[in-house]
Amino acid sequence: MNTERIILGIDPGTNNMGMGILKIQGSKINVLAMDVLKLSKLTNHELKLKKIFESTLRVIDSYNPDELAIESPFYGKNVQSMLKLGRAQGVAIAAALYRDIPVFEYSPRKIKQSITGKGSASKEQLAALVVKLLSLKNIPEYLDATDALGVALCHYFQRNTSNKSENKTYSGWKSFASKNPGRVKN
Questions:
Q1: How many structural domains is the chain composed of?
Q2: Angle, helices 45-63/79-98, rounded to nearest 10 degrees
Q3: Chain segment 130-154, per-residue pLDDT in tens
């Protein structure tokens, strides 16, 4: 079965937001695009959020992704930074949901573990492996772009290597009951 799907990966940020788009055909992975949305010149936080929403919608409308994979905010030393990052992530998620695209969230540690085998890998280590895995010519100037491709790759790896019993979907209670007769009493 040679199914095709497009994954949009986002590394949210309020100064730089990375976006990467992968096209999956069977087991072949191609990079359709990667970019960094530079927001540091905008001084108003609300304008940054508006720009994130509009840019995410524009990318969605241009590439028609089947799924959005996004990095979850992490707690650093500065609570205000985490709140701003969470807002940026929420706006990108809202744009995807506005276009009825399913959203999948991964922690920074999970992404690094999935790509490098080490959850504490540096951004540079992640970038080097993403470049190698996707046969890119070089590491881009802004690592937010390779971080975004890393999020999309992590999603691809998680969806394709997860245990089938953990990856079940059901269309309703009847569907669940019919697929799990030993777990449901009549």
A1: 1
A2: 40
A3: 999 999 998 888 999 999 999 999 9
**Whole-model pTM over 0.85:** no
49-74 pLDDT per residue, tens = 999 999 999 999 999 999 999 999 87
C-alpha neighbours within 13 Å on the C-beta side of residue 113: 7
Catalytic residues, which ones?
A: 11, 71, 144
Residues 102 and 41: beta-carbon distance below 8 Å: no
Range of the domain at 57: 4-183
DSSP letters for 2-46: --EEEEEEEE--SSEEEEEEEEEETTEEEEEEEEEEE-TT---HH
> What is the rounded distance in angstroms from the CA atom of residue 155 to the CA atom of residue 185?
35
- List the CATH number of the domain containing 39: 3.30.420.10
Tokens 């999948």 locate to: 104
Sheet holding 4-11, edge to edge: 28-38, 16-25, 4-11, 67-71, 103-106
